[in-house]
Hints:
Elements: H1 9-28, H2 44-98
Helix pairs in contact: 1-2
Amino acid sequence: MADGFRVDLPALTKASEGVNDTITAMAKKRVHDIDCPADGFGHDRLASTVAEFCERWDLGVTNLTEDGQEIAGRLAHCVQVYRQTDEAVRSHFEGIVQRTAGDDPAAQ
Length: 108
């Protein structure tokens, strides 16, 4: 492989989609759905502990989801910018190659 910089756009796209798929899957089964009525535990203190754990877990999942959305958005934006830049460079070089008159820009 030649020295230089290379970006694997399909891999970035797949990473963004993977993060979004995970967020979608997490939204289908919320943490608060795991909690059950206190009498289902048979012990008030255990029920309270589980409820507190689920509240903290739900907050953590919410924070992770927000971070994941930010990551997926940034990855998708990077792909878009790289593609726009590639297209602009391609168009520029096509213009140089198709130029039929004037000085050769490479001869300077």
